[in-house]
Structures are given as structure tokens and as C-alpha cells.
């Protein structure tokens, strides 16, 4: 994968999108669905992975938009 992985995370009473290694949010949203939509756009543009955090703080889902060869090398 070439881009920076994106994370949908809880942000106070709302949700945010944060790039891997960033301390600041890329965007803040009222709903998780809005954050997922924006995170997906960013991850697709960067050929990266989107990881989604549930309300309980556990990561529940991940989508890969990079060039993942099948079968994997190695």
C-alpha cells in the first residue's frame, strides 16, 4: 500500500477521521456514517486501508483499497 492508512475514531460526542501517525483529525463529523464515507474517499484516493473503530473503542472493521496482490508474495 502506498498511502497513509485512515482511521474512523470516536471524537467526543461525534466521530473523526485521522491519518496514521497524525495527532490531529482530518475531519470531524456528527455521525459515524459520515466519517466512514469521508474516510473511504481518502483511503481510496491514497490506495490505503480504512479501519473503523466502534463505539466501544475496539476496531471492528477494515477495508483495503491498495494494490493487494493475490496470492501474496512470500
UniProtKB/TrEMBL annotation:
This is DUF2188 domain-containing protein. It comes from the Bacteria. It comes from Novosphingobium mathurense. Residues 1-27 are annotated as: Disordered. InterPro entries: DUF2188. Pfam families: DUF2188 (PF09954).
Amino acid at each position: 500500500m502506498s498511502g497513509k492508512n485512515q482511521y474512523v475514531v470516536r471524537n467526543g460526542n461525534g466521530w473523526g477521521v485521522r491519518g496514521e501517525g497524525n495527532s490531529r483529525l482530518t475531519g470531524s463529523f456528527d455521525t459515524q456514517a459520515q466519517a466512514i464515507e469521508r474516510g473511504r474517499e481518502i483511503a481510496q484516493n491514497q490506495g490505503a486501508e480504512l479501519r473503523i473503530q466502534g463505539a466501544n473503542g475496539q476496531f471492528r472493521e477494515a477495508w483495503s483499497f491498495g494494490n493487494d496482490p493475490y496470492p501474496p508474495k512470500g
